[in-house]
Amino acid sequence: MKKSLPFIFVIAILGSLSSCKNSTNEFKTIKPDVLKDKIAGGWAGKMIGVTYGAPTEFRARQIIYEDSIRWKPSDIKGSIWQDDLYVQLTFLMSMDKYGVDAPAKKFQEMFARAGYHLWHANMQARKNYFDSIFAPLSGSPEYNIHADDIDFQIEADYIGFMCPGMPNKACEISDKIGHIMNYGDGVYGGVFVAALYSEAYFESDINKIIEKALLSIPPESDYSKIINDLIRLHLNYPYNWRAAWKAYMFVYSKIRIKIFSLLNEGDGRLAH
Question: Which domain holds residue 160?
């Protein structure tokens, strides 16, 4: 980067994906020091958040976690041992080695050959690589029973960081990387997260950031519907998140029960 340039020019690139509808041709500028600060802040937030939340994992399923969380600044050192961090660092290393436009197989290869532990959709994607099943098939339901899991959602942050004000470019990259381990809503979760970061470079209103990021995923998707339901719940309970949470759980618990009942009725093996 040449220090003589007072600004970094950011072009909002039109994405080639049909689900990426948040398109614009306008030029935007951001000062280098502001850009650096926002990227650093994004990584810090990710690292703090994952270490703060790690002790609660699997301990608050369908309940509100009421216990106190003991966290101190030095705990952030443990973030590098979380899959939320090390998986996307591998994808960054892949970009550095093969280029941003490298095929998905190159990313899947470095990810598969890394020595760290993986779970769920990521673990299946690794196995698929060694079985010669490559992206996008490696993330499809046919070859990955965890296709709808949150794996890509928790490791898509870096895509948003590298696409300031360019949600469609973020969507394009997310589509390639996300299908290594996920499919459908499993991919849309990562697309949405990356778009949130991308939009946040030039927008400070949280409601507008969410509204714009939603344009990056199909409105008919379950992921989009759930986000919109949560927005409506927030409007109904703006100062009582506990009431909003209970209303959400009431509705979606009934949906899960209905789906399970239909499965029981439609498959004699499940009924037994």
Answer: 8-64+77-217
